[in-house]
Amino acid sequence: MGQKIETDSQRFKKLVRGKVKSDLSKYITRGEMIGKKGKDLVSIPLPQIEIPQFKFGKKGSGGAGAGQGDVGQPLGPPQPGDGEGAAGDQPGGHILEVEFTMEELAQILGEQLALPRIEPKGKKNLITTRDRYTSIRPVGPEGLRHFKRTFKRALRRQISAGSYDPGDPTVIPIREDKRYRAPKEVQQPQAVACIVYMMDVSGSMTDEQKEIVRIEAFWLDTWIKRHYQGVETVYIIHDAAAKEVDEHTFYHTRESGGTKISAAYELADRIIDARYPPSEWNVYAFHFSDGDNWGDDTPKCIDLLTDRMLPKLNLFGYGQVESPYGSGEFFDYVHELVGDQKNVVTSKIPDRDAILGSIKEFLATGR
Fold it and tell me: Which of 158, 187, 216 represents a domain boundary (last residue)?
């Protein structure tokens, strides 16, 4: 019975995974996948999946093999809509919620977008210690007893003592013969990464643009975290000035001032130098804006990127969300760097339908 339940469970998981994968664009566009985000699991609302099965019909309801029938008689029970409807007392259909790990979501995203694996650049500075059972000791729990080692020692002892009988090859270990597997601490370096998110929160950025950024950042996080053991995230908001904030403030702040993008780049550069040296960290930076910037500030932004930031980054992504108020000119200046700088990616995100394509643009480099 247990084996049958496990088989059914695995079959159900495959059906759910196929459903999510086929409708991935819809889920991303609506943001439904990140409605409930736990520590390691994401709860996904999923339409009820009906598994085909045979059902017995009602006796005398007609159909094939039920005797003589009239011309035009349907083969089967009456269908919904036959006759007049009336108020019912039964509940309607329910939405099924299923849980996926972040690793499973990343795998689905990678398969759907054909994303290459990320190749870490920075040195590995996070050391984890794991026990590997490569040592042998004369004492230990019986569950870790090494059978072959114990048998060989007992056999040698009996042969040397002359108590071994080839006609009755019985080997009985004593306490001194027993050997046990023992753990040995092994230090394993793991790659670590930092993701710096920057967003324009001036008056030209609406709540809809921020929701697009929130959805896109969730999927960028999911994919990057699949390739690193330790990932830290930095959030920077800016209008004419920039400041570091927490995640909630990042998505729920709106200022009424102007826009000076260089303030965000300068702050990000200082944070990277102080806390995430590129010799040890794999650093990613993503900036989201509507492309509106104070005119005299744009040359300074490009200089900051080319001279100070880009040499330290695995990847710099600029995502421009369309706004009814922004000019959109900043995109062209950053896009000019794409040909000369391999770690620069630009993407236009006019609406939610463009999120999936934008995610692929950012992650297709494999950096």
Answer: 187
